[in-house]
Amino acid sequence: MDQKFIRITEQPSLYDHLEQKTTAELLASINAEDRKVAQAVASCLPQIELLVEALVERFPQGRLFYIGAGTSGRLGVLDASEIPPTYGMPHDRVIGIIAGGDGAIRRAVEGAEDDRAQAWLDLQAFDINVHDVVVGIAASGTTLYVLGGIEACRAKGILTAGITNNPGAPLALTADIGIACNVGPEFVTGSTRMKSGTSQKMILNMISTAYMIRIGRVEGHKMVHMQLTNEKLVSRGTSYIEQALGIETEEALRLLKTYGSVARAVEAYRSKG
Questions:
Q1: Measured torsion, CA atoms of residues 75, 79, 85, 88, in degrees rounded to the nearest 10
Q2: Active site residue: 113, 151, 186, 242, which one?
Q3: Among the four 35, 134, 156, 272, which has the fewest Cβ within 10 Å?
Q4: pLDDT at residue 240, rounded to an integer
Q5: What is the pLDDT of residues 34-85, one digit of tens each?
Q6: Alpha-carbon span 64 to 116, nearest angstrom
């Protein structure tokens, strides 16, 4: 494997003397850099599509796992944690694993990302199998925790993908599906929680959203399987039912509370009609 790739994430910022800039200048420059991210993500769409299609093919047997360290790991955990309330899926369908365990979400765990064997151990705790898909996330593309996990999964015949911000990095070359998003040097040199992290969040949004839509968790443009965890979502669900069935608010609310989701409420009402 060629280790002589260009480490774009470590290249010097295009800006200097940041401490001498005004707040307005700093914000304008950060915003100018952020505007480059969506275009960089667009260049990865063919690879993202391959991953989403593979996930759909493996549903319902297969699960989606994210593994990462630091910012990348936190973004994976964030994306996974939003699937149950947004789409009403069980918590064990999309799973985020961060190096160092859940405690590392709030506080960095020293040395956790350098343990090449730990990710596979973490995955084994979930009885991972060949129906599943594992997505490794690492801006540098060299994080040992992620690389070790991806290598172990491939050796066991488990489909893998790798999201990195350094084209040609080991992660992009090791995973079955390499997603290399070149966002350029960071505004603060090496601070990959900025553009690199933003690009990863956008890509994860695409993966999970497209996946959920393709397996039927959205109807029209509505989250008809969302969990009713607060008044805002109950109100939204009631409105969805009103629109779908042309009934009054009180009846829509009664149906929602009876059946627990927009999809089930609408189906039950129509089946009785």
A1: -160
A2: 113
A3: 272
A4: 97
A5: 999 999 999 999 999 999 999 999 999 999 999 999 999 999 999 999 999 9
A6: 21
Amino acid at 135: V
Average pLDDT for residues 94-116, to the nearest whole number?
95
Q: Which of 30, 37, 133, 10 is nearest to 76 (CA)?
A: 133
Q: What is the DSSP string of 25-75?
A: HHHHHHHHHHTTHHHHHHTTHHHHHHHHHHHHHHTTT--EEEEESHHHHHH
Active-site annotation holder among 49, 82, 219, 251: 82
Active site residue 251: no
Closest C-alpha to 227, from 63, 94, 89, 80: 89
**Catalytic residue status for 110:** no
Question: CA-to-CA distance for 153 and 120, rounded, in angstroms?
Answer: 7
The secondary structure of 145-158 as a DSSP string is HHHHHHHHHHHTT-
**Tokens of residue 100, six digits:** 């160092």
- What are residue 253's phi and psi, to 5 degrees? -65, -40
pLDDT, tens digit (0-9, with 9 covering 90-100), for 178-193: 999 999 999 999 999 9
Residues in the chain: 273
Calpha distance 16→97 (Å, rounded):
36
Tokens 């399987």 identify what position? 225
Q: Where are the domains of the chain?
A: 8-214, 231-272
pTM for the predicted model, two decimal places: 0.95
Identify the CATH class of 8-214: alpha beta
- In this predicted model, what pLDDT tens digit does every residue of 113-131 receive, in sequence order? 999 999 999 999 999 999 9
> Measured over all CA atoms, what is the biggest interatomic distance in the chain, rounded to whole angstroms?
70
Neighbours of 194 (CB within 10 A): 20
